Amino acid sequence: MSNSTLSSTLRYIRIVFFILLGMIVIYFWVAPKALTGTILEPAELAYDFDLKAADKNVRLSDYRGKVVLLYFGYTFCPDICPATLGTVSQAFESLGQRAENVQLIMISVDPLRDRPEILGEYVTHFHPSFIGVTGTEEEIAEVADSYFIFYEAREGTPATGYLVDHTTTLMGIDKEGHLKLLIPFGATAEEIANSLNFLMR
Amino acid sequence: MIIKKVFSIAILAMLFATACQPKLDAPQISVEDIWGRPSPKVASAGAFYMRIKNTGSQPDTLLWAGSPACGTAELHQSTMSEDGVMSMQIVEGGSVVIPPGETVKFEVGGLHVMCIDKQADFSLGDSYDLTLYFEKTGELNLQVEIKNP
Prior knowledge:
Structural class of chain A: alpha+beta
Largest interface: A-B, 28 and 33 residues
Strand content of chain B: over 45%
Distance between the termini of chain B: 69 Å
Number of strands of chain B: 10
Oligomer: heterodimer
Strand order of the largest sheet of chain A: 1-10-9-4-5-6
Strand content of chain A: 15-25%
Radius of gyration of chain A: 24 Å
Number of helices of chain A: 5
Largest sheet of chain B: 10 strands, mixed
Shape of chain A: elongated
Helix content of chain A: 25-40%
Largest sheet of chain A: 6 strands, mixed
Distance between the termini of chain A: 58 Å
Number of helices of chain B: 1
Shape of chain B: elongated
Order of helices and strands of chain A: HEEEEHEHEHEEEEH
């Protein structure tokens, strides 16, 4: 090959290379991030519970039109529950104005100790919009069952009293009341915000 | 003459070397980044997290934790099952071994000091005394910082 042909070929290759590189960069930049969690398909209507908050009765259907995150936990839980509620709170904050369209409801798996007022004070500490609900043992059992949530009281120490093992997955319900997304424990605030955006569509 | 000199230098060198020998056969415990989440008093149990490092050549055991911020403190472990069920219990024997050359992490979803019967609201920026008692190292008086992760 003559010199001029070689250099123009090289230049051609260089141009193509940078175009490809540019395309790859743009792809990763605008590509939607993978969702953390399990999408349920088909998404069925979530069980409409009727439970007690500190100052009123709360039904899931009261929040039709908003995205609802359900979390099953209890106030004696020192590690996992504060971690989850803290992370969801951060996710809500990151949504800014859009956080008006989301609602977190914590359902107590310890109805014997978690009285409604205590629950209310507990959840609002993490975010002023959070709601905590409880009910009779039978009511809680029925709701947990409907969401396939496992929970079981176990013996702790004399100091702790009994502890409750429980499923730590967040239930993501869309604006029409369908249970659509299961978010595992350990999801970061960013991942949860991403999931909320998905549910808000 | 020379032999005497060499000999005395050798003795001095040996004494020097012995004096500078690092203490063998002992643990060397340090505790870093002790923190807990902000939480109201109505949340009667809290958790303290930290990293416990042992740069020595022998293990040590954390036997006990105490703080004026807690009615009682115990060492607990959270464990997650495959299907996302979290379970928490006091550590076996109530104590945690810190092996030589290792760092044992007390972190969310794992080991933690459970602060039972909180005596106050834990607010962002607060700091509380925490005493950790080790079998060999003895008592360490430390501070827990209340902050967001």
